[in-house]
Amino acid sequence: MTVDDAKYHLHVEMRVLGHITTDVEDMRLLRTRNIGRDFFYFKAAADDLCTTQALFDFAVGYYRDNDRLLSREALITELNKRGGTLKEGSEGARMVALLTKCQAMTLDKDSFPALLDKLREDVLLRVLGNVSTLIAQNAKTPSKTFEAAYNYLSTARIDLSGESSPTQIFNLATGMGDMSKEYFDRKLHPEKYMGLEVGWGPLDKATKGFKKSTLVLVIGEVGKGKSTILLNWAAEVNNGGKNIIFFSFEMPMWQVKARWVAREMRIPYSGFMHAELSEDEEDRLHRFYEDEMGGDVMFDKLQNKSRGYFIVVDQPDDTSPAFVEQMVKQCNSLYGPCDAIFADYLNNMKVDGISRNAQWWEHTGLAAAGLRRIARIHDLVAFSAQQINREGLKYARSQMKDENDYASIIIRPEHIEGWKAVINESDSVIGFIPDDDIGRSAMHIQKIKGRDWTCEPFSMRFLPEMCLVEDQSDPFEMHQALFADNKTMSILADLDSFSVDDS
Q: Which one of 30, 399, 427, 479 is CB 3.0 to 4.6 Å from 214, fit for a cystine?
């Protein structure tokens, strides 16, 4: 890249930064176009920091965490919080000066999409230039050079172009030796091949953990526990040390946080949500988070399980798979590789690029396909949910009328909203029917589809007021270890006194 080319690319980077720090619609557009930090690479010869890239990280991170655009004052505040210096010539001072220049530029809103296209073209040209350099440096070993160039381009294709990952191939005729080695490695080291466990004993035993690159769906009636199941699974996967992104397309942030607290602490959700906890519960909540002695034992026990991050994305205007993927890329860059995403839920997702007159089921099928593509490209497990259709509800009610037995209700694939596209894209589909009419709350679980596992129907304990779904066997074991007081035990024993408000 010549000096003039570099200066022009810097100009493009600055204009993009100006747009996304002054216009919220432009920020939202950028987040749906697979534009990440790698698109910002200009660095002066004397600099040890790519200031445009650092400022981009601040702008996107600040918008994600605060739902507002990064201003000069906000940047200074954030730098001070992180212990940065604003002395002349420092990294912090250079970022503040750069933001001031970007926001002072004359910007044309209508040209922003073309500006993003130019940013992408420039970075892809840079990649091609790097390939040329790579080939020139290793011309004496063509085979190794070709392999290195192919791997480099494949990685860049995923990270920068927004296209799908290269198709994997395997030659069965010559690969039997590798397959044999893998089998004995699985036998000797089964822990290496475990997928993500969701905390439901029968399901984890049957699946040996849900595997990466797959889409897992939960199927149930509207308002009966889909969100509760997804949040429980997300919490259990995170408690196992994994990195989670939870997309709440339905519940506001406060509701998600309140449900998580209710589940983890075994306190009534409605009491926490409406600030109506008992004195004992409030005292425990205070000790849980604000122990003056420098770390409550109960808090430590929970937190020591959660070594990964748990990011909640609250009711975004854009609910497309493209937006979900952009958030995955950003979290991968800022916090580390994501292990699982939870999208609550398919019917709330809208897919870019299809007709405005498209039927809801067209969006649903493409949303499922988009989530599975993200799972494959980014090597993670995608979890989502979908509701039972009218035919399924009629069928379930007819069974109830005849048998009055929740455990016998069967959810068939054709009972799923948009079922043909959804069931084809999914690797595992799990149905549930809640039952709280028999003196204790229960949730009956069945496998609808499983590519490589099978499982007989089973039941879980369902405590809706605590947003909790757990194994029937010894359900209070964790609770007793963490919060051994009679007040909470009486809450668990007497669920009938609570109202149920479950999405």
A: 427
**Edge-to-edge strand ranges of the sheet holding 310-314:** 310-314, 244-248, 340-344, 381-387, 214-220, 428-435, 442-450, 458-463, 468-470
Looking at the structure, do residues 144 and 273 belong to the same domain, yes or no?
A: no
56-86 pLDDT, tens digit per residue, is 989 988 887 787 899 999 999 988 887 777 8
DSSP code for 219: E
∠ CA(371), CA(202), CA(422), 5° rounding? 25
Is position 181 within any domain? Answer: no
Q: Return the closest-CA partner of residue 198 out of 217, 213, 223.
A: 217
Q: Centre a 10 Å sphere on the Cβ of residue 354 and count the other Cβ atoms it contains.
A: 12
Percent of the chain with pLDDT over 90: 27
For residue 468, how far is the Cα from the chain centroid? 20
Contact 195, 382 (CB under 8 A): no
Q: Within this chain, do residues 208 and 73 fall inside the same structural domain, yes or no?
A: no
Can you read off the two tokens belonging to residue 301? 């026990």
> Which amino acid, 31?
R
Instruction: Evaluate whether 41 touches 50 at the Cβ level (below 8 Å).
Output: yes
State residue 308's pLDDT score: 85
Peptide bond just before 289 cis, omega within 30 deg: no
- State the pTM of this model: 0.64
234 and 140 share one domain: no
d(C-alpha 120, C-alpha 395), whole Å: 51
| Count of beta carbons in the 10 Å neighbourhood of residue 278 | 14
**Residue 292: CA atoms inside 13 Å, Cβ hemisphere, count?**
1
DSSP 308: S
In a domain, 466, yes or no: yes
